Amino acid sequence: MAIIERPVDTPALAPEGGPSVVATPSTSFGYFRRPVETTGWRAWAFTVDHKKIGIMYGVVAMAFFVVGGLEAGLIRAQLAQADGTILSADKYNQMFTMHATTMVFLFVMPMAAAFANYMIPLQIGARDVAFPRLNALSLWTFVCGGIFINTSWFLGGGADGGWFMYAPNSDTPFSPSDGVNFWTLGLLITGVASLVGAVNLIVTVINMRAPGMSLMRMPIFTWMALVTQFLLLFAMPVITVALFLLLFQRNYGATFFSVADGADPLLWQHLFWIFGHPEVYIIVLPAFGIVSEVLPVFSRKPLFGYPFVVFSGAAIGFVGWGVWAHHMFASGLGPISVSVFAVATMAIAIPTGVKIVNWTLTMWGGKLKFTTAMLFAIGLIIEFTIGGLSGVTHSVAPSDTQQTDTYYIVAHFHYVIFGGGVLGLFAGLYYWWPKVFGKMLSEKIGKANFWFMIIGMNMTFGPMHILGLQGQPRRMYRWTDARAGEGFFNLGFWNLVSSIGTLVLMFGVLLFFVNVWVTRKAPPAPVDPWDARSLEWITTSPPKAHNFDRTPTVHALDEFFHRKYEDVGTGDHHEYKQVMTGEEVVNEEIAHADAHIHLPSPSYWPLILALSMPIMAYGVIYHTLLIVVGGAMAVGSMFGWALEPSTAPDSDFDPPADGTPSKEVALHV
Amino acid sequence: MSDATLTEPGTDPEFIDETAIVESTVGTAYDGTDEEVVDHLGHAHHTSTGLSNTKLAMWLFLGSECLLFGGLIATYMLYRNRQGDAIGPDQLWDIPFTSASSFCLLMSSLTMVLAVSAAKRNDERNTRLWLIATASLGGLFVAGQVYEFTTFYREGLGYTTSLFSSSFYTLTGFHGVHVSVGIVMLMALMFMLLRRRVTGDKAETVEMIGLYWHFVDIVWIIIFTLVYLIPA
Amino acid sequence: MIRGGGVAAAVLLSLAVAGCAKDAPQDTFQPAGPNAQKIQNLQVPVFAIAGVVGLIVFAAVGFIVWRFRDRGQAIPEQTHGKPALEIGLTILPALILIGVAIPTVSTVMALNKTSDTECIINVTGQQWWWEVDYPVQEGCGGISDVIVTSGQMVIPVDTPVLVRGTSRDVIHSWWIPKLNGKRDMVPGRVQTNRIQADEPGIYAGQCTEFCGLSHANMRMEVIAMTPEDFEAWKANQLEAYVAPEDGTVAAAGQAEFISQCSRCHQVDGLEDADGEPIVSRPDVYIYSGAAPNLTNLMTRNTFAGATFDLLLPECRSEVWNAPPDEVGPAYLEGVTPECLNSVDLRDWLRNAPAMKPMYADPEKLEDTDGMYRGMPYLALSEDQIDLLVAYLLERK
After folding, report:
1. How many CB atoms lie within 10 A of CB A20?
2. Average pLDDT over residues B136-161
């Protein structure tokens, strides 16, 4: 190993009060000096700060949201009329496959990861996640995987087998382009991101809670994110197996799904859905966590039945493993299996219903303030209820054999994923925007954003119920007048409504970006703009690099609320009186700042290790040499990583002495 | 992303905290007082649960790995009899040979335990020694697997010969790669100990790689039983 | 306020439940036989319950949103929950779901029964059409020799039919919404689907498991007719081959067919110049190993995966919209020269891949060992097409 040793010469102490002090570590523990920049792109590329990583997760996810949305737009443009000609059959098949893949793996999951990354350490009173460099690795792996999958558009076309890529239709003779290879390898790469992130966040939640933060005092979003990470932890390896089998089948001549060689194509379906069903909860549980934060704040009441919400989340997490075959009711599993899975599926509706009941009762008796975040949260209750109920109709297996693989199920899962997932994520964006960026989004544009999105989504996905019940199958690049019927429920009218709805929805989403642009120079937001309840607000907005000046000590669920308000009632009569403003609470923390804070130091290795993965993946598709290059990069960066301490010993982070706004990296020699 | 005002200077040049690893960022276990609990390099175990972060992470990772091998084993069990007219397990298995190489791997778990215990005693010499022993036994196992694969190949069992062969090679291959990665980690750890370049708690690092090693061992016991011992 | 969209959707949903669209051939709420009726009996109450539960939730949320809006009231009581209420609201849906689960399981069992059917018909899916064959049996009123057809399945009414299906390449799904739910047809497996029609009629369906490029163009129909008509149909299918009279256009068409089409398409009874039967070898040229049997092409009224009509629109309407007692006779007339949709048929012969996307580019067949998926472009001249159409018109 060629480790470049740097002489142990001693750099001068950083000059005090400089606008931005760049420290040079005195020793090197890798091939290179480790990065130290606190400004510019390097500060982002090599950061291990969970907040910067969270923001980057969010930005990239939003970019993929736009990509996936444009793909959806093309799909709906094609289907607006009978015998659409905007896309060829081949392009259309790629479009719906990549739309689903992008939205599920490259938007909703990473967007949830963005919130989890940013909020979990703040909500549990930690300075960062347990493994900051692994966190950076998760981010960059996801980015590399996402871009890798999308490069297939320019290299012979995207995957065209539908997002669940049923075998044997995904095999080379049936899908001869490299699209499926890109898809397989890309998902393997993003799978690494999810797995690493899951391990990291679970350890963070379990081990890094602030004093007094018992599990049942954890903010509900952290809880739901924790359940999500466990689902990821156990679901990712299953899809990994399936993806490897497919990869070996397509590229190395294995026959795992070739019927001619005696294979059983249903193996793929089982492996995929054992991953795929927990995946549904991976998508919605973080959003459930977000609305469970937003509703109490704007109802000015605690979450109704907090333990029930926690346990129903965990129950969903468990039962979610026993229902995968309800995606296969038409596959011919045999009546016994079908019955068992149908009943299990109905059972999972119960904890899901518990959540809706608790959200509703949280608002009951409250003092509701209809901010944009609150509107999105209420919207989620309504829209997800529709998706949940159409889910119950699907659990009735015989009825499912009529509705599965029609537009009815497309409607169902969009109400679940968009209604139950994306609306929650938008609630989170509006709610936490001032926390993350220190300025408010415009409520006026926000409300327009909400209404266009909610009307748009109901116009787009609502008619799909009708289309499906009228027998329009999904994944058809064209539909024909011959089977459109007449009268009120004819396919032509409702397909058109759905396509117009897409435009409304797109305009709604556009308003969000407009909002971000318009408010980019807004004045600083108040410390506690919403009269919030949980720990992440007991610090400045945006939080400092070290999150909390003093590690908070937690005495209750809704810690922040209880610091601001006191119960002045007697006996059974409760009456709350404000004793401190949010600002005062935060200032008190600042006044008692910890003397020494150690933050993990930036590192090159996560980025380099992440970059090695798509290189290897291109190697699988194009040339073995690239596998060798990527592999060497991966091994090299792992060694560099292992030899580099997480925190450079000479880069203690101390609060600036003179109150300057800049960060100061003091050097102890 | 600038910081707001900080009022407390709090810089004390005398107070140099050596904390280097991630635990330093943790909120400490609540001990009922507001006193600052200071972490020190080498025994940074102040986590909410008292479990070390790295060990917990390794356990979680291994939990995930269970599902990976679960999927691969399920695939093999589904396809174990599907070799068509091609050569099948009955004509291939050399149980005494595989038992011997399995024995090597099992023994390596023992040497791994000895390495961990030496590391806990801070006995660096023996730690390195047992690490080398573990890696060597693992190496013997991998060598045995390579020999076995070559023999099978010569007897007509290519990777693409049949469903049985593909799933067999995939399952055992994945396991072999895991053992190989373990060997690389053991050797790297050995050299890092030698050159004093381990960045965290030494005993814990050894223990963590030990966990991985034992896991890979246990998986082999399952694979050996299901693939070789129980007749198809 | 927020509930607006939701309520609208719920109302539409319940209207859809009522399922009253005219002539929606694949409406899932218009059963036309006992199997689909069993599903209907289950899904109508379930949809209704779901609708009612939905309306209750919307109403509750709507009421709360209005009633508890911020009107300057004091900080509300910080209730953390009422376990009794919580448990009650957990048990209630559980009870409803038990009520749904029991009939669900019994319907699943009933729909999977195979022992009480009286007629067995095989379907085989391949990219992108269905082959239908009637094995020799005593069922179906007795079938003395195998009947092979494609795209359209003819069944007698009031007879429980067992469809046994598989696939030759990827997974397809057999679905005639008015007769039963769908069932995936998986290569290497034989799966079953019960169908039974109460009335004569043409029941449309579509492949519903994504099966590649032309998935959208893989349709099928079931034609139910009275047992008498069905007997007539069987007899016609089993009639011996009648070669075109020498010297006619059709006779020239037969020669053309033998040279251009018979490699893949079987016409039973066709003989070469030496009097040897001509056996097609689609397994050599087509990746799935099959091509539609054209022996009685003109007794069907659709072609190419039931994607295109063999009948002109007005003739088609006469058959498809015939009252139940006239469907059988109308269908049995087959395709007459006046009714032939020669435009689509000629287009198809001219350049099939242009009409229906298929992997038919000879340059790009590496992955399928040079075999086609679907019908290739044959570079036929207009004269050749004339001859072939004349020949095909007699295939009934």
Report:
1. 13
2. 95
Whole-number pLDDT of residue A6: 29
Residue type, A265: P
| Token pair listed for B1 | 């992303």
Does C58 contact A at CB distance below 8 Å? yes
Q: Residue C65 pLDDT more than 90?
A: yes
Instruction: List, as ranges, residues 472-501 from A with C-beta within 8 Å of C.
Output: 472-479, 482-491
Written as one letter, the residue type at C361 is D
Eight-state DSSP code of residue C373: B
Number of cross-chain residue pairs from A and C with Cβ atoms under 8 Å apart: 356
Taking contacts as CB-CB distances below 8 angstroms, the residues of chain C near A266 are 186, 189
DSSP string, A566-629: EE---TT---EEE-S-HHHHHHHHHHT--S-B--PPP-SHHHHHHHHHHHHHHHHHT-HHHHHH
CA pair distance C58, A378, nearest whole angstrom: 10
> Which residues on adjacent β-strands are paired with residue C173?
C184
pLDDT number for residue C258: 95
Question: For residue A262, which residues of chain B lie inside 8 Å, CB to CB?
Answer: 79, 82, 84, 162-163
The interaxial angle of helices C34-67 and A372-395, nearest 10 deg, is 160
What average pLDDT score do residues C78-82 get?
85
Q: Residue A83 phi/psi, 5° resolution?
A: 50, 50
| Angular region, C34: left φ>0, alpha ψ -120 to 50, beta rest | alpha
Q: Which residue, among A610, A668, A619, has the nearest Cα to A637 in the 3D structure?
A: A610
- Residue A39: per-residue pLDDT: 78
Position C11 confidence tier, pLDDT thresholds 50, 70, 90: low
CA distance A101 to A159: 9
Would you call A132 an interface residue with chain B, using a CB distance cutoff of 8 Å?
Answer: yes
Q: Which residues pair with C203 in a beta bridge?
A: C222
Distance CA A504, CA A76 (A): 12
CA–CA distance, A176 with C370 (Å, rounded to integer): 13
Q: Evaluate the omega torsion of the peptide bond into residue A661 and state whether it is cis, within 30 degrees of 0.
A: no
> Which phi and psi (to 5°) does residue C288 adopt?
-75, -15
Of C86, C170, C189, nearest to A169 by CB-CB distance is C170
In this prediction, residue A413 carries a pLDDT of: 96
The sign of the torsion formed by the CA atoms of B136, B142, B147, B148 equals positive
A414 touches C196 (CB < 8 A): no
Instruction: Check if the beta carbon of residue A116 is closer than 8 Å to that of residue A286.
Output: yes
